[in-house]
Amino acid sequence: MARIAILGARLSGHTTAGYLSLWLGKGHQVRPQPPGETEDVDYDFLVNATGPKLNFGGTPVLGPEGGDTGSVCTPEHALEANAQLQECIRAMKKGERRRFVVGTGHGMCTCQGAAFEYLYNIDHALRQAGVRDQADLTWISNEFELGDFGMGGVHITRGGYITSGKVFAESLMVERGINWITRAAVNKIEPGKMHYETLDGTYHELEFDFSMLIPPFAGVGLKAFDKAGADITSEVFAPNGFMKVDADYKPKPYDEWSKHDWPRTYQTPKYKNVFAVGIAFAPPHPISKVMLSPNGTQISPTPPRTGMPSAAIGKAVAANIRDLVKGKIKEPIYTASMGEMGAACVASTGSDIFKGTAATMTVFPVVPDYETYPEYGRDMSLTFGEIGLAGHWMKWILHYVFMYQAKLRPGWSVLPD
Length: 417
Ligand SMILES: Cc1cc2nc3c(=O)[nH]c(=O)nc-3n(C[C@H](O)[C@H](O)[C@H](O)COP(=O)(O)OP(=O)(O)OC[C@H]3O[C@@H](n4cnc5c(N)ncnc54)[C@H](O)[C@@H]3O)c2cc1C
Prior knowledge:
Layout: E1 3-7, H1 12-24, E2 29-33, E3 45-48, E4 53-54, H2 75-93, E5 98-104, H3 112-128, E6 135-140, E7 155-158, E8 161-164, H4 165-175, E9 179-181, E10 184-190, E11 193-198, E12 203-207, E13 210-214, E14 217-218, H5 233-236, E15 274-276, H6 307-325, E16 343-348, E17 358-363, E18 384-388, H7 389-406
Parallel strand pairs: 1-2, 1-3, 3-15, 5-6, 5-13, 6-9
Antiparallel strand pairs: 4-14, 7-8, 10-11, 11-12, 16-17, 17-18
Helix pairs in contact: 1-6
The structure holds flavin-adenine dinucleotide.
Flavin-adenine dinucleotide is lined by residues 7-8, 10-13, 33-35, 49-51, 72-73, 111, 114, 220, 278-280, 305-308, 310, 345.
């Protein structure tokens, strides 16, 4: 009997556990370990699927717990942010003005897509409430250009021609009357005011009535010890707390970055029975070019690891563990490199059955591959974007599909990730 412990069981951990249970059947122990419980567990295989630590402490005083900005990174945070938004709408209905600032709360944030989506949801909610003309909406982010999304930007096929993500994102902002500030590292929050540095090394302030800023991510702070009890944390984890896997971590200049740097099997180099999936693995380097201000502040996104790649990684790791357990293979053979896989993203830009819209984008591959696709780094027949009502319906359907899948209901494994 194989004992497989899975730390963390939301997205990639859930996928890994689901497939292992399905494929290995009874007689093996597949155990997701929920947070908040302490237990000594013997394992034959260990999968780290603990996702990110929401590192609000990286910017004083960011976030809803003690700070003055909101978050949508947990259900509780999102509910709290919505209550504040509704309060703003009530005040605006009485004739008051409100300033909304949404984006990233640190120079090295990722997950711009989630903030981008939230900004458009606010815009839509204000329009539906009939108070949009009393609102100033501003996007603030660490991206070099709009539409970078931590993927080094993207060119997309749209309506039969190729356009840059920058033009796509800027058009959306102009169309909805939203201001934007890019190349910005938010470094301090005070009540109603944020401080930020821009890539040219200058410092600025921005006042707000409502703000939602994504925090920087780090590993969740796991410690590792060998059998003799020696602390081996620094061997197993990168300094940012993410787990080192089969990536090429040798520091390289931007011009030498390659898809081959990215992990394929997510096996840790030292412990062949330990894997890290989803956000928990340490990327070899960013995807967007690293930018430093004259003051030495890094103001550029770290790499995103969205749902689709996280689930694909979980599935590949599950397949490897299955075949290792069954003795069919000696080394992992199933791969899920972000340099070889695509991702789809449907970002809501307003939720309404008839008037809603969503921006639908696919990229292939996630990490640009200039060896195979020298012009844009991506396969332009598989990298496209569109915005419209059909996108909203797709997002709505996917919401229920993912909930169904997460509950491992009949047929879950054939549904898309
Ligand atoms: C606001 C927001 C919106 C997003 N929207 C999208 C989207 O529209 N599309 C998309 O593709 N992606 C989206 N993402 C990204 C997506 O959520 C992540 O890619 C995905 O959740 C990563 O999966 P994961 O399994 O690595 O981590 P998670 O889903 O975060 O799961 C990690 C789990 O580990 C648990 N854990 C942590 N520490 C421990 C511990 N010590 N022991 C045991 N368990 C532990 C956590 O509680 C959690 O349940 C969004 C992210 C955010 C924050």
